[in-house]
Structure formats: structure tokens, C-alpha cells
Amino acid sequence: MEMKSEHNNLGQLLKWQDDFFKNLEHKGRSTNTLKNYKTDLDCFNNYLSDHKRTTEIGKFSIPEVMEYGKFLEEKYSSDNSRRRRVQALRLFFDYLVEEGYFNHNPVRKVPTSPKFLDIPRPASFAHLKTLWFYLLDNEKEAKSKMEKVIIKRNQMIFLLIYTGALKVSELSTIKKSDFSFGQNPRVLIRHQKRDPYTVSLPNFFRNIYESYIMLLEDVKADSEMSFDQLLFNANAHKIISGGISPRGIELLFKSWSKELVFEITPKSLRQACIFTWLQKGQKEAVIKEWMGVSPSYSLKLYRDHLNSHNYSDDFLAASYQELYRERA
Known about the structure:
Structural class: mainly alpha
Distance between the termini: 82 Å
CATH class of the largest domain: Mainly Alpha
Number of strands: 5
Strand content: 5-15%
Strand order of the largest sheet: 1-2-3
Number of helices: 13
Low-confidence stretches: 1-7
Largest sheet: 3 strands, antiparallel
CATH architecture of the largest domain: Orthogonal Bundle
Radius of gyration: 23 Å
Number of domains: 2
CATH topology of the largest domain: hpI Integrase, Chain A
Order of helices and strands: HHHHHHHEEEHEEHHHHH
């Protein structure tokens, strides 16, 4: 009977983990993120099995979770590896508490290893400039409205990451109503666990935005589609749906990297944005606000490597204006 009970408990645990992954997917987490969480929770599942620990969630308390923490200390020499696995388990228990399956989260009592901060590896100025001109050249060559609106969408993605430091998770859900144009363009960023905040965008962004929206609304009308998201998912012939997944954005960058024969990712472009802000003399408090991080977040690694990089976003407006002068 005990073996049968443990089997049933394990089945329930795996079902809850599967529901947890579906919940993360619904929130727009990328395929890679989901894969990492699954790997981290598999470590926990294997620990329970190999060490003959109970899989009955109701019996989990601080002593049991502390034992798992000791296991991680012995198994992994990397601080980041230990930290990641504790963080995954903590988020899983948070989900169980939210769903009412568990009344508290014992993993909150487990100390995590200090986070190791990687040296920023931003996209080089030459590479990001090449990508921007590549996107402008694509617009010159576009023939159909569908081709043009896809290219303009791609330009928006580039600009919102390089001039606004938006993450792919933020881009995937952003709406037209999140933009405002007063003294300068701003975009509103919403998060589930923190207050909304706005990020300032360069003045020339407005013209590019309005040109994109005008064409997008035209294509949506032709397709008899309606959605509020700024971006969209499409094939070569039609818009499939409003919004674009984080994974979809990552795949776009992979295709650009392959075409241009150098690697550039959303993360490296976002880091280039932060270096650009610093080199333009923006105050650290403002940059942290735009990044959506706490005032205690340290920009020291960016400061330490500031002289190793040289950025300017002046070329963006000049090159876009040149494109339209050529058309006039």
C-alpha cells in the first residue's frame, strides 16, 4: 500500500508541475525558459526518488526543503546552478500556494546562493548599426503591403529594444494604448508583481511608430482582423494573430544573425542600449527606473566596461530620414 500511495503522490506532483509549466507558457515565457524550469524541477524529482524522500506535497516543510538545500550544496559547485534550482522550486511552490494546493511556501526559508553577475556582452556598435541598415534596406525592397508591414514591425522590435531596453516578454504583450506622445514619446510597461512604469523613447520614434500603425491598420482592415497588440505573428502572406511570443522574437534574431553572419540577440541589443544611455550621460537612477529594476540594483559592471564600448543612437534618425528623402 505504501508503494501505491507513493506512486499516486508522484503522479499528483508531476501533474501539478505540468500545470505549472502550462501556466508559465500562458504568461508568455519562452520555450527555452520552460525547458530550463523543467530541467531544474527534474533535479528535485530525481532527488526525491534517489533519496527515498516522500513525494506527498502535504508533508513538505522547512526541514525537508533544507535537506534538499544541503543536497544542492554537495552536488553543484556553481553558485548559479544551486540558485537556479532553488528559484525554480520556489516559483513552483508559489504557484501551488496561489492555486490553493498548499497553504505556505517552505522554500522561502531556503537561502539561495548569491547571484553571479555576468560581464555584459553587448552587441557591438558595428553589428547593431549593420542590422538597422539591413532592416531599412529590406523596406526599400518590399513590394507588397504585407512585406512592408512585417519589415516595419521588425524595425519596431529593434527600436524598442535598442532605445527602450524592453525585454522580449514585455514586447510580446505590449499594446498600442501603452504608448503616449507628450513632450517626448513614452511606453508604459506593466508587470504582475510590481507597479507599472514608463520608459522614455527618442523623439524620432514617433514618426516611425505612426508610419507603422497607419500601415498596420490598413493591412488589418484588408484582412478583417482586429487586435490591440502593437506587434503580430504572421507568415509571408497574412497576419495570423495579434502579439508575438518571446520565442518568436528570439527566432527573428536568429534569422537575422544567420543572414548577416554575426550573432546578435535581444539580450545583447538590450545591453547595448544600457551602455548607450550611460554614454549619453543619463543618471543611474533614471536608467534603473527604465530597466524596471530596484534602486539597489548595481550598474557597476556596466560602469567598469564603459570605456570598452562606444555607442551612439544618432544614426537611427538620420538613416530613417534619408530613406524617406530618397522616396520623395
